[in-house]
Amino acid sequence: MSSPLTVRMDFFAEMIRVKIFTRSALAIAFILLYRHFNADTARCDPSVATIARGAGMNVRVAHKAIRELRESGWWEVRICAGTVTKFGPTNVYVPLLDPLFRRTGVSHETGVPHRADLSPGVDDPLSCGTARTGKRKPVTILCAEAFETFWQIYPSRRPHSNPKEPARLKFEAAVKHGLEPAIIIRGAENYAAYVASYIADPRHIAQAKTWLNEERWADYQEAHEIPQLRAGMI
Q: The whole model's pTM is what?
């Protein structure tokens, strides 16, 4: 389905008119619609770090604004479990340009069900199976797969302790609060690169559960970024 610029302009104008979106959400919607929108596929695929940078905000604010867009029913925000890069599952942002899609949950052009029509126990924003067949992975399965990817990437503290189960619980809690697993995984990869370059003693590598609890993924969204140390941070 082709989506010309005029359709996107009308969509964004309507987002402003309804007065339900924060400025941060509108800023991100603008970046997605006018910088990253693929007119042929009607979707956007940038990383959250790229979106945040384009909108002039930090990653934490971007996460909240993206969740606002997702929960509004005006945007689909998904992660394709079947498309996994070295950074983890791929982010997908789809504006529901068809007003009928937003009102009824089904597009008269594509027939694709809105996330409100999914069967119980399946959380669409965190899964991305085949939309036309309705085959989507439950959040628990997607979380498990994403966490294993994270665990493989996270730098080893051997021979020192790094308990896996507490880290898994912290990972799942972050995802359940609306954070995309790909963001955590990207941060873990960049942290691993930082550790390889600057930390010789594994005792100085943070335990994964601590790293997750303190949301340090936000400090490592850029590959060559060296964050300033916060108080008590190793």
A: 0.48
